[in-house]
């Protein structure tokens, strides 16, 4: 029988043995090793997709130094976050096009009114829900290729808006736009989870979302310029062409720059790729990527109460999301001109971005403050909603200010969406939880436009009341409940934590004899409930 040294950690395998990949041991050797009984074992088929890359290259790369770690962190953050944020910018601009074109003459040309406009937004989210089935492609195919295809398709659909001549055509286009965009944000979330530690992901989440919150600034100036252009075609059509063209340029960048995972990231050298994989696995306890759909992880995601609490939050929170599409019409009904509405939108976006930057600083300085931050940033729209229900209608400037003070509501959303990723492990479980969340996100957004009915204008008391109760009161309570459960799980696990890195074992299924490699337990793609060394960020 081979001695215990015949079982190696990944970093101890020499490049000369890379072709063999795994050291042969008898199968019952695992149970006989003193520490093996405390460790998990999976087959290579169920392991992290970076396993082969690590086996071939890990032994050649030394341990990262403190200075190298700081430089690596800056490099990864300053590449991945802006790239994902840029994609989120065009994604959000595409969603918001109907909001701007509603004041640029599209309603008249396509025979829309307030109720039909609300219906088009509802149909967008019907497509969004059905589009969650596209998560299958995210599980089975490289995320970079999936993102490139999605980006091209949503650019094409925005272009097609310019040939619409009826509200039925707008209905169809908004439906398919929702269907295509459905898994874009989950895909971005997966990518940031592949490259960033849990701490980096938490404090960069508000910065990532500034391109969504600040979308009003850039798109507002684009709209302002188009209004002065006096084009030969309809203003709303030129606006659609500009936004679609920006999306198409971003698609080209995605095609050449967007990584599938750290092992093929073009902006990293070999050492940096290994270091990124190591630091993510060591700090998150989670795998980088896994392409096998695991039924037991789907079942666990469905049984985990935390999954449903996240769903509850997103359902309640997103009942307020139509405010994004409605604000231009609110400005108009308050008495602001079309040109003035674009400038107020810039102010709205500027306040959003400022709040997001402050949120990022707070989270970076105060660990485990996500739930409390969600509550804090929900206080702004909570106060704004009360004011919109109670202020006299003739106080126009005060009403405009109260709409703008609702702007930070998106910060709570993105903090929670980041938390869904960092608070779970197991690739299939993450994908399943994302699908559940986005389903209820879509259901809420089907309902939300219907709260803004034409006969409720100009005050829309029903819409503001629902937002106040569900989005700005009940939703933060779900965040507190999640924190309570995860904190209790952490208390139960801390006494069981190993002093060093927790190890796992992967058995090759390609050879007649048993082949086993030992490495970080994150390589095993265990769920957070399977891995008692997983500590939840709060």
TrEMBL record:
Query: Keyword annotations for this protein?
Result: Membrane, Transmembrane, Transmembrane helix, Transport
The membrane topology noted for this protein in its Swiss-Prot or TrEMBL record is: Multi-pass membrane protein
Q: Which residues form the signal peptide?
A: none
Matching Pfam families, A to Z?
MFS_1
The compartments listed are: Membrane
- TM stretches of this protein: 76-93, 143-163, 175-195, 207-227, 234-258, 339-363, 370-391, 397-419, 431-452, 464-486
Record-linked InterPro entries: MFS (IPR011701), MFS_trans_sf (IPR036259)
- Domain of life from the UniProt record: Eukaryota
For the keyword Transport, the answer is yes
Q: Which GO terms describe its molecular function?
A: cysteine transmembrane transporter activity
Q: What is its main location?
A: membrane
Its GO CC terms? membrane
Matching PANTHER family, A to Z? HIGH AFFINITY CYSTEINE TRANSPORTER, PERMEASE-RELATED
What is the protein's given name?
LALA0S01e18976g1_1
Q: Which organism is it from?
A: Lachancea lanzarotensis
Taxonomy of origin reads:
Eukaryota, Fungi, Dikarya, Ascomycota, Saccharomycotina
